[in-house]
Design goal:
CATH class of the largest domain: Alpha Beta
Number of helices: 12
Largest sheet: 4 strands, mixed
Distance between the termini: 15 Å
Strand order of the largest sheet: 1-9-8-5
Oligomer: single chain
Strand content: 5-15%
Number of strands: 14
Bound molecules: pyridoxal-5'-phosphate
CATH topology of the largest domain: Aspartate Aminotransferase, domain 2
CATH architecture of the largest domain: 3-Layer(aba) Sandwich
Helix content: 25-40%
CATH superfamily of the largest domain: Type I PLP-dependent aspartate aminotransferase-like (Major domain)
Order of helices and strands: HHEHEHEHEHEEEEEHEEHHEEHHEH
Length: 379
């Protein structure tokens, strides 16, 4: 029996294809790379400083420190805030590994909380329940490109005298009540991993803050804690940003708003197409009043996730699962969480989430193909 609507069998929909983006900015990128090569200054320097100024202005924050990765941004933030052995840091149990891994790496204990059943992000009431005398910081994650519900979290943190480290690695350009992700808490951490919505040509990251003293500490920590060259008041690491990465990011940054708008337009198209298809059991990404979602990932929830995913793979459609194993079930964190603590929403999410292609250069035909192939399996 013929299936309808049938897209050409040759139509491929990768989860992410950066070649179209590169083709559109190729000559600017090559000029930027050539500029750095001609200068032969590869670490920090004027390209990094210019990028730091430009991105700070773009998101409305006083200080920005270019660093080696989003993971290092988190690690340095914890170091700068003096978090160490004997301390506890509260994170959602459902995020990319670095959110919790960085806490363990400074010798502190990650304390996991379950997530909101709709947004899959940290909730203030869950955080309040686990704040104790050893708590030193809270790390909300703006998952998939939507800000966490920050107002109650910030109020709780202020009451408890705790700093808030925003893991904004997936949320560059997302807003919360008109303010940018990564400018709401004590520090903001960003990643420019190539697949992020602002992607470098390798690893790169950023820390943002409005606190001058913290900014100075972060700058020292980035370079082995050196105040002046070879004089170390504290111990940092090599967390420096490369000039080549900064030069590439400077070319891309002016396009980011348009790329994010392209993701949002694709999300609207999906919403329309899914509405028409009325697919059984598919939950679309949450929308929240006063929060602009930039759809770093477009993640649906579907009970028959693994079967659907295999079907889509067979049809040439790329998908991924962010994330299949919450922190409280990770082998490396065995024993970290009291055995009676339950995380039902994160457990449910890890079995149901499925990221669909959303990058800005996708065509309507490709989006239609994704929804049609899902309908094929689910109806
Ligand atoms: C990507 C990501 C990171 C880590 O960034 P890297 O640049 O890959 O080190 C941290 N947290 C979240 C939520 C991420 O998505």
């Amino acid at each position: 029996m013929p299936r309808s609507p049938k897209a050409p069998a040759s139509l491929r929909v990768p989860l992410l294809d950066l070649t179209a983006q590169y083709a559109a900015i190729r000559s600017d990128i090559q000029a930027a790379i050539e500029r750095v090569c001609s200068s032969q200054q590869f670490i920090l320097g004027p390209e990094v400083e210019a990028f730091e100024r430009e991105i700070a202005e773009a998101i409305g924050v006083r200080f920005s420190i270019g660093v080696s990765s989003g993971t290092d941004a988190l690690l340095m933030s914890l170091m700068a805030l003096g978090v160490g052995p004997g301390d506890e840091v509260i994170t959602p149990t459902f995020s990319f590994f670095a959110t919790a891994g960085s806490v363990a790496r400074v010798g502190a204990r990650p304390v996991f909380v379950d997530v909101d059943p709709d947004t899959l992000m940290m909730r203030a009431e869950d955080v309040a329940a686990v704040i104790g005398p050893r708590t030193k910081a809270i790390i909300p994650v703006h998952l998939y490109g939507l800000c966490a519900e920050m107002r109650p979290l910030l109020a709780l943190a202020a009451d408890a005298g705790l700093p808030v480290i925003e893991d904004a690695a997936q949320a560059l350009g997302a807003t919360y009540e008109g303010r940018q992700a990564g400018t709401l808490g004590t520090v903001g951490c960003f990643s420019f991993f190539p697949s992020k919505n602002l992607g470098a040509f390798g690893d790169a990251g950023l820390v943002t803050t409005n606190d001058e003293e913290l900014a100075a500490t972060l700058r020292r920590l980035r370079n082995h804690g050196a105040e002046a060259r070879y004089y170390h008041r504290e111990i940092g690491g090599n967390f420096r940003l490369d000039a080549l990465q900064a030069a590439v990011l400077r070319v891309k940054l002016p396009h980011l708003a348009r790329w994010n708008a392209g993701r949002q337009a694709n999300a609207r198209t999906y919403r329309d197409l899914f509405g028409d298809a009325a697919l059984r059991g598919v939950r679309l990404p949450p929308q929240a009043e006063g929060r602009a979602h930039i759809y770093h990932q477009y993640v649906v929830r579907v009970p028959e996730r693994d079967g659907l995913r295999a079907h889509l793979t067979e049809r040439g459609i790329g998908t991924d699962v962010y994330y299949p194993v919450p922190f409280h079930r990770q082998e490396c964190f065995a024993g970290v969480t009291p055995p009676d603590r339950r995380f039902p929403h994160a457990d449910a999410a890890s079995a149901e989430v499925l990221a669909l292609p959303i990058f800005p250069e996708l065509t309507r035909e490709q989006l239609e193909h994704v929804v049609a192939c899902m309908a094929e399996y689910l109806s």
